[in-house]
Amino acid sequence: MSKIQKKKPLSEKKKRKVGPEDGAPNAVSTAKQAAPKVAPRSKVEKAGAEPVSDNIFTRAAAFVREVKIELEKVTWPTRKQTTGTTIVVILFVFVVAAFLGLFDFSLSRLVQVVLT
């Protein structure tokens, strides 16, 4: 038997707990037990971030800073990769255009033959 086909022992299987939705009067669901109480964040974009001011210019400056940080994380394609994919896209567009043009021409001829 391979590693994928082996069954988990009964001790590792998750046991289903009875919750109030199952009709048990005093049962507490596991989701309610496990969920920590978190105070709602007001004017905070991320955990650990500084509170954001109501000033639109401050928020715009913060947004631009975050955009700059994210753009530094981007892996940009090389010139060769960009050229290659651009050529592939242009060729694909021409092939699809030729196919659709041929299909349109043949259907228009078929309609002319049927109507005349």
Descriptive account of the structure:
The chain is mainly α and 116 residues long. The protein has helices at 30-34, 56-73, 79-115. Helix content is 52%, strand content 0%. The protein is elongated. The N and C termini lie far apart (71 Å). The mean pLDDT is 77.
Primary descriptors:
mainly alpha, 116 residues, 3 helices, elongated, single chain, 0% strand, 52% helix
Topology:
Elements: H1 30-34, H2 56-73, H3 79-115
Gross morphology: elongated
- Total strand segments: 0
- Overall mean pLDDT stands at 77
Ends: how far apart?
A: 71 Å
Task: List the total number of helices.
Answer: 3
From the alpha carbons, calculate the radius of gyration and give it in angstroms.
31 Å
The main sheet comes to: none
Q: How large is the share of residues in beta strands?
A: under 5%
Could you spell the SSE succession in H and E letters? HHH
User: By helix and strand content, what is the structural category?
Assistant: mainly alpha
**Share of helical residues:** 40-55%
Which stretches are low in confidence, meaning pLDDT under 50 for 5 or more residues running? none
Brief rundown of the structure:
The chain is mainly alpha-helical.
